[in-house]
Design brief:
The complex is a heterodimer. Chain A is mainly α. Chain A is 68% helix and 4% strand. Chain A has one domain. In chain A, helix 7 runs antiparallel to helix 8, helix 8 packs antiparallel against helix 9 and helix 13 packs across helix 14. A six-stranded mixed sheet of chain B has the order 3-2-1-6-17-18, with no helix packed on it. A five-stranded antiparallel sheet of chain B has the order 8-7-22-21-20. In chain B, strand 4 and strand 5 form a beta hairpin. The chains are: A mainly alpha, B alpha+beta. At the A-B interface, helix 8, helix 11, helix 12 and helix 13 of A face helix 1, helix 2, helix 3 and strand 3 of B.
């Protein structure tokens, strides 16, 4: 409703696709755990409220965000640092990504991601000409952000988040400067840094070893990915059908034994493994095509936008979305080492839902302005 | 900037495209391989939604493995029951959630769950899935004979060992009993009761299929192989004369005849036939030295040694027979690496499975042609259509028909008036050979018997191997073969 009035010219595909993905996610979560689905529903309501709020607040001109870019930059750093703080920082499953205040648990990284994109869009727009000359002294910020990503990696023990932030940065840097050398240098630095971290952080080593051969540790670290692979494999071409997938044990022939979940974190990180089993190759591919379409529409928005900030913002948001999808699904499908991040719009998780809806709102605002100009 | 955005967009699309490719890989290309993995807990659960095919005995009526249905969390699940308990345990195996599968339940899982690639079955299962009805597996009819199986188990009476009986003409496995046995119904929920099983051998290893994976010193039953090699060489006949000094000199040491032989000082001049009849080690020892160890092992290979017998049970549940060194099959190239004299009477480092020795007897019984042993007679779809039927298939010619005839003559003499008189069946001519292998512990032997009946038109070939025996093969193993052969020939067992 709000969208109808505030952004009449916005891309007509992005919102329905997000709704579709959210709906699919909610359905799968309900099928796996009805209680979680109720909570997720609540988060979706809050997410939609934030979505509307973002639209309303920025209805006149979202570009005023550009003015506060450094505030966002600082905000992103503060949020990223939060989990590292004592008392409120919480370690969940070996990764320090959570903040807990009383009953309330939050993953600040999700919001930090958005702030980082806004900051980068503003900053790169301002400095792009200078950076494009690629003088040695201008490489400072690049190294700074690389250092930041490495710090995030060491601090949170989470390769996925570091890869996500740094990937977004490289993507936007490339869009701003058009210099592939930056990307190459950045990737080299990241790989080098990651390799150095790999030497020292046992958890990262585990992840890589499991990626290379999960069956070597079938009962330990490899268990989750193996069971998820079995789940995906069981889907086959057409899937088992909704509600017919198998995610729990049955306690053998001993009826007194309680069923046990086969795959840990099934409705957050591994939701794709559940989905792929029940809807099969056809359904999973369809889902991925929705992501691809979302991506294409997002980049189209970036192409049509008329100012650098808008272009960078739209491209950054969309690329971040794509990269996040790739990092988690690539991990599940063993294209890259597995890291636990959420699948946008589909996974269970409050912070994630919230951040995705705000991301959507920003993208729609950019597209509204861009398309209004075109039509 | 637009050029860069387009490139970034292409990168994004490629990334998502890679995900589609990877999903396709796992769901189409790798899926069958994943299903077959033993640690696939999901598949072990999935199997309970399939109404597994039954496993039936040779008569098509005796149920060896059936199902009971129960609703669990709104899902109709089928659990396996084995009405015959331990009687067919080693051939049939088990199918459980926690301990996966064994035996035919494991190797024939595709047929039992109707996931085989057979076109008709694929069509049926796909239709079943589309209709949302239970997928029904194919029934397995095995070649095992319930009566023979029961008699064999009772004959063993819990002693450690195994009995295997084959139909020489077809290779059908009529009896396959390994003792001690276990109740497959206990594997899922009461495994500790299986672990508590004790027997006169240690470890009791009730789950081990001794008939196909137990390795034993064959002792004198191996003389049948040596004699086959001798006849095939063309240098020996039944009447060939040997001088028996009572011992055989090997590497300067004297190998004496076994203690149960009638004349401790030696038999003097004997024929080849008599040497077999009384199982004279010194004669076979000298014979072995003349033939050479490698020639004897070559003959053994023609009987199927040095390869896992091609039974339908899982590969891990079968072992090859032959010379073993440090737990590994050892195939010498150098004639000096084996002691031909000791190989000739079944000692050296020879280890055999009961199934392999039954194959030796069956090949002799079948005029020299070795048939592939098989356990699965036919596979029947839920609709009653025969999906697959095993046709008798020759594994190869182990020896010339004349050699088989000569060996039969020898083995008839062994039962008629040699070391295996306890295997005689009134009214039926039995051919056989006993074996007594020392284990290194004084007074503890591995005893065996191989044979077939009726000798002139054989319908049953048998191998009996017993562990931890104080007597000889003729005293301990041969008497067990008699009632099993009687049962399989449809003869009344005399009191």
């Amino acid at each position: 409703m709000v969208a109808r009035f505030v952004i009449p010219y916005a891309d007509p595909y992005l919102l329905p696709m997000s709704a579709l993905l959210t709906g699919i996610g909610l359905t799968v979560i309900y099928r796996l755990n009805p209680d979680d689905a109720f909570r997720q529903g609540l988060w979706i309501v809050i997410g939609v409220a934030f979505f509307a709020l973002t639209l309303l607040a920025l209805r006149r001109d979202y570009r005023l965000l550009e003015r506060y870019k450094y505030l966002f930059g600082v905000g992103a750093i503060v949020l990223l640092a939060l989990p590292a703080l004592p008392v409120i920082g919480t370690t969940v499953n070996g990764a320090r990504l959570w903040v807990r205040v009383g009953q309330f648990q939050f993953q600040p990284g999700e919001v930090a991601k958005l702030m980082l994109i806004v900051f980068l869009a503003g900053y790169l727009q301002e400095k792009r000409e200078v950076l494009a000359q690629a003088r040695p002294k201008d490489l400072g910020p690049l190294l700074l952000i690389w250092g930041g990503a490495m710090l995030v990696l060491v601090q949170t023990n989470d390769l996925g988040s570091a890869l996500l932030y740094f990937g977004i940065f490289l993507g936007m840097l490339y869009v701003a400067t058009g210099r592939l050398a930056f990307v190459v240098a950045g990737l080299a630095l990241f790989v080098g840094g990651a390799f150095a971290v790999y030497q020292f952080v046992g958890r990262v080593q585990d992840r890589v070893a499991v990626w290379l051969d999960p069956w070597e540790r079938a009962q330990g670290a490899g268990y989750q990915i193996i069971q998820s692979t079995y789940s995906i494999g069981n889907g086959g071409f057409a899937g088992t059908g909704f509600g017919r997938g198998i995610f729990t044990t049955i306690g053998g022939s001993d009826p007194s034994e309680a069923p046990r979940q086969l795959i840990p974190f099934l409705n957050t990180d591994f939701i794709y493994a559940a989905l792929a089993q029940e809807v099969g190759l056809i359904g999973a591919s369809a889902l991925l095509l929705v992501y691809m379409l979302f991506l294409v529409r997002g980049f189209r928005t970036a192409l049509l936008a008329d100012d650098g900030f808008s272009k960078l913002l739209a491209a950054g948001l969309t690329f971040g979305f794509a990269l996040q999808t790739f990092i988690i699904l690539g991990g599940i499908l063993r294209l890259i080492p597995l890291t636990g991040i959420t699948l946008p719009f589909v996974s269970y998780g409050g912070s994630s839902v919230l951040a995705n809806f705000v991301l959507l709102a920003l993208l729609l605002l950019v597209s509204n302005r861009a398309y209004a100009r075109v039509t | 900037m637009n050029r860069q955005i387009t490139r970034l967009a292409v990168t994004g699309v490629v990334l998502i495209g890679a995900l589609i490719v990877a999903t396709t890989y796992w769901q189409a290309w790798a899926a069958p391989g994943l299903v077959d993995r033993q640690d696939n807990a999901l598949q072990r659960v999935a199997q309970f939604t399939v109404k597994r095919g039954r496993i039936l005995a040779r008569d098509g009526r005796t149920v060896l493995a059936g199902n009971v249905a129960r609703r669990v969390e709104g899902r109709r699940l089928y659990f396996r029951r084995y009405p015959q308990r331990g009687l067919f345990a080693h051939a049939v195996g088990y199918s459980t959630e926690k301990r996966s599968r064994a035996g035919l339940e494991r190797s024939q899982n595709d047929y039992l769950t109707a996931s085989n690639e057979n076109l008709g079955t694929v069509l049926d299962t796909t239709l079943d899935k589309l209709r949302g009805t239970t997928v029904e597996g194919n029934d397995l009819v095995v070649t095992l004979d319930p009566r023979g199986q029961r008699v064999a188990r009772d004959a063993l009476g819990g002693r450690c060992g195994a009995i295997v009986a084959l139909e020489p003409r077809t290779g059908r496995v009529l009896v396959l009993v390994s003792s001690p046995s276990y109740d497959p119904n206990l594997v899922e929920g009461q495994y500790e009761r299986i672990e508590q099983i004790r027997a006169d051998c240690a470890p009791a290893a009730p789950l081990l299929n001794r008939a196909t994976a137990g390795l034993y010193a064959p002792g004198s039953t191996f003389k049948v192989v040596t004699a086959a090699a001798a006849f095939e060489s063309g240098r020996y006949r039944l009447e060939s004369g040997f001088a028996d000094p009572g011992y055989c000199e090997e590497y300067g040491k004297k190998v004496y005849n076994y203690f149960d032989q009638v004349l401790p000082s030696g038999y003097g001049n004997v024929t080849f036939l008599q040497a077999m009849q009384f199982s004279i080690n010194s004669v076979f020892c000298n014979l072995g030295k003349q033939l050479g160890g490698l020639a004897i092992l070559d003959q053994a290979r023609r009987f199927g040694f040095y390869a896992k017998p091609p039974l339908e049970t899982p590969e891990e549940e079968r072992r090859a027979s032959g010379l073993y060194e440090r737990g590994r099959l050892f195939s010498p190239k150098d004639p000096n690496a084996v002691d031909p004299g000791r190989v000739a009477f079944g000692q050296e480092r020879l280890l055999v499975t009961p199934l392999q020795m039954a194959m030796v007897a069956a090949a002799v019984a079948n005029g020299g042609t070795l048939m592939r042993p098989h356990l699965v007679d036919r596979i029947v779809s839920p609709g009653g259509r025969t999906v697959r039927r095993t046709r008798p298939d020759a594994a190869g010619r182990a020896m010339a028909p004349e050699t088989a005839a000569d060996l039969t003559t020898m083995m008839k003499a062994v039962v008629a008036g040699g070391t295996a008189t306890s295997a005689q069946i009134p009214g039926t001519v039995v051919a056989g050979k006993t074996g007594t292998a020392e284990t290194g512990v004084r007074g503890v032997n591995t005893t065996s018997f191989i044979g077939f009946a009726p000798a002139d038109k054989p319908r049953v070939a048998i191998a009996v191997i017993l562990e931890q025996q104080s007597g000889t093969g003729g005293q301990t193993a041969a008497p067990l073969a008699k009632p099993v052969m009687q049962a399989l020939l449809g003869l009344p067992s005399n009191p």
